[in-house]
Description:
The protein is α/β, with parallel strands linked by helices.
Amino acid sequence: MNILYLEHYAGSPDMGMEFRPYYLSREWIRQGHRVSIVAGDFSHLRKKNPRIREDMTLKKIDGIDYYWLRTGAYEGNGVERALTMLRFCGKLNKYRQRICELTHPDVVISSSTYPIDSIAAQRIVRYADRTRSKWDRGDDITEDGFIPKKTIHIHEVHDMWPSTLIELGGMSKTNPFVVMMQRGENYAYSHADAVVSLPGNAEKYMLKHGLQKGCFFHIPNGVVIEEWDDPEPLPEEHSKVFKQLRDEGRFIVGYFGGHALSNCLGTLVEAARTLDCDDKSNVHFVLVGDGVEKKKLTESAKGLSNITFLPPVPKRAVPSLTDCFDCIYIGAMDSPLYRFGVCMNKMFDGMMAGKPIIFAINSPTTPVEECGCGLIIRPEDTNDIITAVKRLMDMPQSERQKMGERGRRRILDRYTYGKLAEDFIKIVEDKEQK
C-alpha cells in the first residue's frame, strides 16, 4: 500500500521534531508499505532544516521519500508563520497532479497541526481517484499486498485548532485567521474518511463540528523501543551534575522538555524556593531543555541551592537522562483546553522510563492515572508539588519502583510505534470494508 503523509513540520532524528511522521512511516515501511512525506522546508520545531532550491525536491531518509516544498522562514507565531501555512497548502494544491504521479497514493494523511491542509488533501484524493485506473500497479504493489479500491483520506489532529488559538493564545473567535481555521476544521471533520486524534477526549467536540459517527479514532504518540534498548550517553555537562547530586545523596525531581509559559515551570521554581528554606530537605530539581521562558526562570531561581537548569539533550539520550531522575514532573497551565486530553511526548517517555510521575495537568483521563504510575495533582499549585515530592521521598524505594514499572508495562502493551502504526492500517482496512 502506498501511504502519502502531508505534514508541514515533519522532521527526523537528524533534523529534530516533529518525530511522529518519521516514526510511523518507518514502521509502515517495515510492515511492507511504501511511504512518501510532503513537508515544508522550514519549521521552528526543527534544529536543522533542509536546504533546497526548488519545490518537490526528493530526499530519501531511512527508506522514506521526503518531498520538500519551499515555504519560507519565520520567527514566532505572527503573520510570517501564517503565510507559510497558506504557502504550503497552496503548493499542495498546485502540485497535486505531480504528487499523485510520483506517489500513487492509496492513503492520504493530512497532518499539519493546523486543519486547512485537509482541503488540499481532499483535492489530492479526488485527483488520485480519477487517475487510479491509469497507474501501472505492478511496481506499486508492496509486500503487504493490500490496496484499497479507493483513495482513503485520514485527517490527523495534533492540537485542537482553533481552540488552542482562542484558549491559550487569547485570540478572538472573530479574528480572520481563527475564522479561517474554524472553517478548515469543520471541513476536515466532515470530509475525511476517518479522523485520527492524538487527544483522546475530543470525539464529542468533533461530532458537533461535522464529524460522522464511527469516524473518530484515538492514536496517541508513543515510544521507539530501539532508542531505549541502545540510548545515547549524556553530554559531559549533564553527567557531572548528576554525579555530584548522587554523591550528595539528593532526591532528584526531573523535568525535561520545553520551557514555555504553557509548561508552568514557574510553579516548580516556587516549590524549589519553599523547600530551599527547609534545612531538612534533600530535594534537588533539575530542569533540562530550552524555550522562551528559560531566561526568566533562571533569573527567578537565582540564589537557590536546590535547582539546576541544563541544556536540552538529543532525543536518543532521553533514556539516559530519565535514568538519573528519582521522579519526573509533568505540568501545564490550568487551561480548559486539556479537557480534550493530553498527548505530550514527555508523558510517554516518562512512563517508559519506569519512574514515578508527578502529573499536574487538569485532564479528565490520562494514561498516568489509568495505570497508576504517578501522583495526580492540581496544576499551578506549589503546595501540591511539595506534598507530592515529600510523599514520594517517604515511600520505600521498592514502592516507587513498582509505581514506575506500571507505566513502563503500559507503554510496552499499548504505546510502541510498531503497535500504533498497525492501528493506523486497521483503520484503512476497516474503511475499505465499509
